[in-house]
Specification:
The protein is of the alpha+beta class. It contains eight helices and six strands. It has a four-stranded antiparallel sheet, with helices on one face. Strands 1-2 form a two-stranded antiparallel ribbon. The chain is globular.
Length: about 180
C-alpha cells in the first residue's frame, strides 16, 4: 500500500475549517473512526495510507461541491493555491511555465512514498506532459485531484485557457496532458 504525505490532509483540515463549524461538523460526522483519526491527527510530515486520503477527498468533494462534476478538480486547484502561496505566488508570475510544472513534479515526489514524477516539454509549444512512473495505481479521485492541482499551479502563472486532460492508457506511466495560451 502506498502512502501520501500528511500535508494534503492538513490542507483539507484547514480548508474544511475555513468553511465554518457547521461544514466541519458534517464532514467529521461522515467519517469512520479510522478516517476521523487520520483527519484530526495528520501532520505535514507523517505518512497516511492513500486509500484513506482518497476517502477524505471524496467526503470533502461531496460536502463542499455537491453534484459538481469538477469537485475533485476544485479541491486540487485549492491545494495548489495553498502549496504555492506567499513568496512562491509572486515568483510564479515571472518564471516560465516549464519551471512551474517541474516544481509541481518535485512537490509530487515529496508527497508520495512511491513513484517518480517528471515533465516532458517542447520549448516552442504551449503544451507539456506531467508523467508519474513506477506508481502502482491512481484512483479516478486522485487523477482528478491531480488535474485540478496542475491547473491550479499553471494558473498561478501568466498562462490562460489552461486545459489538463488525464491519460490512463499506460498504467506504467500515468499522464496529464497540459495546454495553455
Amino acid at each position: 500500500m502506498d502512502h501520501y504525505r500528511g500535508v494534503g490532509i492538513v490542507f483539507l483540515r484547514n480548508f474544511i475549517k475555513a468553511h465554518g463549524s457547521t461544514i466541519e461538523e458534517k464532514f467529521i460526522q461522515g467519517l469512520n473512526e479510522e478516517q476521523n483519526s487520520i483527519f484530526l491527527d495528520a501532520s505535514n510530515n507523517n505518512w497516511v495510507p492513500v486509500p484513506a486520503t482518497e476517502k477524505l477527498f471524496e467526503q470533502a468533494a461531496r460536502l463542499l461541491y455537491p453534484g459538481d462534476q469538477n469537485a475533485y478538480r476544485h479541491l486540487g486547484r485549492e491545494r495548489a493555491k495553498e502549496n504555492f502561496s506567499g513568496i512562491y505566488k509572486s515568483l510564479l508570475k515571472i518564471t516560465t511555465i516549464a519551471f512551474i510544472i517541474k516544481r509541481a513534479a518535485k512537490v509530487w515526489e515529496a508527497s508520495y512514498e512511491k513513484g517518480h514524477a517528471r515533465v516532458e516539454k517542447n520549448k516552442d509549444e504551449n503544451r507539456a506532459i506531467f508523467i508519474v512512473e513506477d506508481y502502482p495505481e491512481f484512483s479516478p479521485v486522485m487523477m482528478e485531484v491531480g488535474c485540478g492541482y496542475i491547473e491550479g499551479v499553471v494558473g498561478l502563472s501568466s498562462a490562460e485557457n489552461i486545459q489538463v486532460n488525464k491519460d490512463v492508457s499506460d498504467p506504467q506511466a500515468w499522464k496529464w496532458h497540459i495546454t495553455w495560451d
